[in-house]
């Protein structure tokens, strides 16, 4: 095989005269450069570990402490109060060391101990400050003395933190009290149950709280003392990794390109800049040069980005290639050559080589990725039987150890043509599931490049949540357009080295039985994909700017609009899931905000009934939603705690009717906001056309909706709405129209120019009380 020959650094033959060595100088040079790169990365990692280990101090501060102690001793004063002399007494006696040298050594040792003590104290103070979350619950303009003291976090947070500098200072996720969780759950469930159902659930809850709950809670507290986060590992294992249904649609999510702009119509050129930007991000990640946004917003899962490459494999420091899929064939494309990163123009050249390759796929190769799109058990069985040895194992390992996956599509996508809205919907479906065999759904993420230059991504969910991948994608998009750029002809900038080896075609030997299993997995995936009803709705009538004039949280505004739209769409309320981040805590991931509250339901009924106190009720509902969101962010959520209690009960073999019913509830409205994190990378004032479209996900329930939204600048909101054709009660386009109307109705209701009858009524009541 060609790959095997390329891997040989030397050959030898045995002759009567002895052994004749035939060295390949080029191969040995590559071995040398590879080792050199590896040692440079080790040194960089060691340096970063030292800097992170002593944070919030710096390594140079040690020298400052030593000099200060020695200078103080020079003035014949003892800052150690006798400790230096004690250390000197225990130093080994040596003729080569004078008394003065022994004194200096003792002073250096004392200075080092003092330095470590100061670091420990500062980190302890920083951890205590980061554990305070009262500032989140205070009203604007009213700052308590405690929060003013908490502002000292800036003093202890250092000047130039690296990516992981705050990790050791982040507090652990607290375990809420069982009675508090049960109380909040019953409050959230009351409005969705009849009186009889609520009375029955209250009885089950009280029985659980007074008996089994305390026992399960003891085990959770024990885990919280031992582990960094009592939720995250179980959440990853039981929610993501142990699932046996298809990842496609059910778990994976997608991210889109710019909405109105395609930087170049040349597919290979767009691939060149996109892949090079991914490499630049990966290099910044390895060097820990990505700055945490603040001490309270730590991208602590960024180390997974381009780190864990699939649900089966890990990327190593020496893996500098991507797996590429085009017209049913798989290629390995090296992104480093001769010890350096390939330029965008060189990557474009390599991608064009793949696009021009006329070779056909071998039998079974074209639809091989359908195994990752269907049910998990058939894929695991096929993997064990047909991909555990030989050429298939080598090629599969190549895909799973690649930095990420690249799909070169022959289709054109985007908001274009005579039906821009319909094409935008098809663009979203293409990113979500494609043709069910042209994305490797097990990979951490797949970068998709379309024929007309559009791009996008499909991301696997277990390794990180959407905000982490959004952070990566924001960097990639802006670097592609505003830093790397293109020539006037639309090609990448730079030159191509003549010695660049071409991409390597992966080889397969797929028997007929395996091909049958691929077809069965494809049938399952195709049925699932065809059932997805998707609608992408850009709303340009208003955005965050208009909402802020109403003095309402934009997220609360949209969530209440979703409640209003769902009520109008279905004539009832439903259990609503909104994802909230718990990144204030070490290894935090997500928590659930139960957005359907009694306050929001009261407001919706009042608005539909034409009552005059709607504005007051709306503000009350918005404040309640903000409170629930803050509670979820600060460890006071409901659902992750109940989930972990349920896991403990299963380990103990105990049955809890209360937990069983709670965890079997259906989330018919699943929502998530994709935050725009790196606002400084975009310029919506001077370049409004460079508007990111955000991303979305599939419906969680067969008879429900999935809604993802992103707030762009001051004047735009993008919605991604999903449901299933098989449910006659759901329609993504109709629900999208309902959401847009609800947003407009709420904006009209809360317009600052409109008088507030509820406030006049409240003032009248206050005056009446004064008269009394």
UniProtKB/TrEMBL annotation:
Q: Which residues form the active site?
A: 461
The EC designation for this entry is: 2.3.1.21
Mitochondrion as a keyword of this entry, yes or no, is yes
The domain of life is Eukaryota
Please report the record's description of how this protein sits within the membrane: Multi-pass membrane protein
Enumerate the spans annotated as Choline/carnitine acyltransferase domain: 173-740
Reaction it catalyzes: (R)-carnitine + hexadecanoyl-CoA = O-hexadecanoyl-(R)-carnitine + CoA
Protein's UniProt keywords contain Metal-binding: no
Quote the subcellular location field of this record.
Mitochondrion outer membrane
Give Gene Ontology CC terms.
mitochondrial outer membrane
Span-the-membrane segments of this chain are: 50-74
What metabolic or biological pathway is this protein involved in? Lipid metabolism; fatty acid beta-oxidation
An example GO biological process term is:
fatty acid beta-oxidation
Keyword terms of this UniProt record: Acyltransferase, Fatty acid metabolism, Lipid metabolism, Membrane, Mitochondrion, Transferase, Transmembrane, Transmembrane helix, Transport
Q: Where is this region: Disordered?
A: 751-772
* Catalytic EC class: transferase
Start and end residues of each Carnitine O-palmitoyltransferase N-terminal domain = 1-47
Q: Which GO terms describe its molecular function?
A: carnitine O-palmitoyltransferase activity
Name recorded for this polypeptide: carnitine O-palmitoyltransferase
Q: Which organism is it from?
A: Cyprinus carpio
């Amino acid at each position: 095989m060609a790959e095997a020959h390329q891997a040989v650094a030397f050959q030898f033959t045995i002759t009567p005269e002895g052994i004749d060595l035939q060295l390949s100088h080029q191969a040995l040079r590559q071995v040398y450069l590879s080792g050199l790169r590896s040692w440079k990365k080790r040194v960089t990692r060691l340096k970063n570990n030292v800097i992170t280990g002593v944070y919030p101090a710096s390594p140079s501060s040690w020298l400052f402490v030593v000099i200060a102690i020695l200078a103080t001793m020079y003035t014949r004063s003892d800052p150690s109060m006798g400790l230096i002399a004690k250390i000197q007494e225990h130093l080994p006696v040596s003729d080569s060391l004078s008394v003065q040298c022994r004194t200096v050594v003792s002073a250096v040792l004392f200075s080092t101990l003092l330095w470590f003590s100061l670091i420990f104290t500062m980190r302890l103070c920083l951890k205590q400050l980061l554990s305070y979350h009262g500032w989140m619950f205070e009203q604007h303009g009213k700052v308590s003395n405690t929060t003013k003291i908490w502002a000292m976090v800036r003093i202890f947070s250092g000047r130039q933190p690296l990516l992981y500098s705050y990790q050791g200072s982040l507090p652990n996720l607290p375990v809420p009290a069982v009675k508090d969780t049960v109380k909040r759950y019953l409050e959230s469930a009351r409005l969705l149950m009849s009186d009889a159902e609520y009375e029955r659930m209250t009885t089950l809850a009280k029985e659980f709280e007074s008996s089994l709950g305390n026992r399960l809670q003891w085990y959770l507290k024990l885990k919280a003392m031992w582990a960094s986060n009592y939720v995250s590992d179980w959440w990853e294992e039981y929610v993501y990794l142990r699932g046996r249904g298809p990842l496609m649609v059910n778990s994976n999510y997608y991210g889109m390109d710019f909405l109105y702009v395609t930087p170049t119509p040349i597919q290979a050129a767009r691939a060149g800049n996109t892949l090079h930007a991914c490499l630049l991000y990966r290099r910044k990640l390895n060097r820990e040069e990505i700055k945490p946004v603040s001490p309270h917003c730590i991208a602590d899962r960024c180390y997974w980005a381009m780190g864990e490459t699939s649900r089966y494999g890990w990327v190593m420091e020496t893996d500098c290639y991507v797996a590429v899929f085009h017209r049913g064939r798989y290629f390995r494309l090296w992104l480093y050559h001769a010890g350096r990163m390939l330029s965008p123009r060189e990557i474009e050249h390599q991608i064009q080589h793949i696009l021009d390759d006329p070779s056909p796929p071998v039998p079974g190769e074209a639809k091989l990725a359908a195994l990752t799109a269907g049910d998990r058990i058939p894929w695991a069985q096929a993997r064990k039987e047909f991909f555990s040895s030989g050429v298939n194992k080598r090629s599969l390992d190549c895909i799973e150890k690649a930095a990420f996956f690249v799909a070169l599509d022959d289709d054109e996508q985007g908001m274009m043509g005579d039906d821009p809205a319909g094409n935008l919907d098809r663009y979203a479906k293409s990113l979500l599931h494609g043709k069910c065999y042209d994305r490797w759904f097990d990979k951490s993420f797949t970068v998709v490049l379309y024929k007309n230059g559009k791009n996008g991504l499909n991301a696997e969910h277990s390794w990180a949540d959407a905000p982490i991948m959004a952070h990566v994608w924001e960097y990639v998009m802006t670097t592609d357009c505003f830093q790397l750029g293109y020539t006037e002809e639309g090609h990448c900038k730079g030159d191509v080295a003549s010695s660049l080896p071409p991409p390597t075609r992966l080889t397969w030997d797929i028997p007929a039985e395996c091909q049958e299993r691929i077809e069965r997995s494809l049938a399952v995936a195709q049925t699932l994909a065809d059932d997805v009803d998707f609608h992408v709705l850009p709303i340009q009538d208003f955005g965050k700017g208009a909402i802020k004039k109403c003095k309402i949280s934009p997220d609360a505004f949209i969530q209440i609009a979703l409640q209003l739209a769902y009520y109008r769409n279905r004539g009832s309320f439903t259990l609503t899931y909104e994802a909230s981040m718990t990144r204030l805590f070490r290894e935090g991931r997500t928590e659930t905000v139960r957005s359907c509250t009694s306050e929001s339901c009261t407001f919706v009924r009042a608005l539909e009934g034409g009552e005059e106190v709607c504005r007051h009720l709306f503000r009350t509902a918005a404040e309640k939603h903000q409170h629930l969101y803050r509670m979820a962010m600060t460890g006071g959520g409901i659902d992750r705690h109940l989930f972990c209690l349920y896991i403990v009960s299963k380990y103990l073999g105990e049955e809890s009717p209360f937990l069983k019913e709670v965890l079997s509830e259906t989330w018919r409205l699943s929502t998530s906001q994709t935050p725009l994190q790196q606002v400084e990378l975009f310029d919506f004032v001077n370049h409004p056309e460079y508007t990111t479209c955000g991303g979305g996900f599939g419906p969680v329930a067969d008879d429900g909706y999935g809604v993802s939204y992103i707030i762009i600048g001051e004047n735009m909101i993008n919605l991604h709405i999903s449901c299933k054709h098989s449910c006659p009660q759901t329609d993504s386009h109709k629900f999208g129209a309902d959401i847009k109307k609800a947003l407009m109705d709420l904006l009209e209701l809360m317009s600052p120019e409109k008088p507030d009858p509820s406030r006049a009524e409240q003032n009248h009541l206050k005056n009446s009380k004064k008269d009394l």
